[in-house]
C-alpha cells in the first residue's frame, strides 16, 4: 500500500489506517533511494541543492509583501479592527484578550525612585546602593533593579575608562617632555 492509497482510504472511511514506514519508502543502499546527506545543524541539503526542486511557486507572497499589505489595511481600518478585537475580548475570547494585553499594554512600568545625581563614579556607586535598597524593600522588581543597575554600571565603566585615558595621556606627555 502506498502513501497516496492509504490517505485515500483514510479519507473515505472512518477506520484508522496503519501505515508501515518500511512499505512507503525504503531507505536502504542499493534500491536507488537514499536519504540526503546531513550537512550539520540546520543544513540537511548539500550546498547548491534545494529541498524544493520546483522552486518558489509563481505568485507566492513574501513576508515583506504580506507585512506591507497588513500595514496598509491597518492604516485604513485599524480602529475598526481594534474595536472588533476588544468586542471579542469582552465576549470572552481568550486569544483576543491575550492579543490586547500583549500588544496594547506597556510591558514595563515607569519606575519612580529617588536616586542621587550622577556626576562621578562615586555617585554611581551610591545610586547602585539606593537601587539595591529599593529592590530589597520591594518597591521595584528585580528586573527593574537589574535594568537600573546596568545603567549605573555602564556609567562607572565609562568613567573608569575616561580616567585611564587621562592617565595614559599624562604618562605620554611626561615621556615626550624628557
Structure summary:
With about 180 residues, this protein is mostly helical. It has 6 helices and no strands. The longest helix has about 35 residues, at about 140-175.
Detailed description of the structure:
The protein is mainly α. It has a domain at 121-177. It has six helices and no strands.
In DSSP terms, counting alpha (H) and pi (I) runs of 4 or more, how many helices?
6
- The amount of helix comes to 55-70%
SSE string, helices as H and strands as E:
HHHHHH
Distance between the termini: 94 Å
**Secondary structural class:** mainly alpha
Major β-sheet profile: none
Low-confidence stretches: 1-27
Percent of residues in beta strands?
Answer: under 5%
Number of strands: 0
Could you tell me the radius of gyration in angstroms? 32 Å
How does the SSE layout of this entry go?
Blueprint: H1 3-12, H2 21-24, H3 63-90, H4 94-104, H5 121-137, H6 142-177
Helix pairs in contact: 3-4, 5-6
List the main descriptive attributes of the protein structure presented here:
single chain, mainly alpha, disordered N terminus
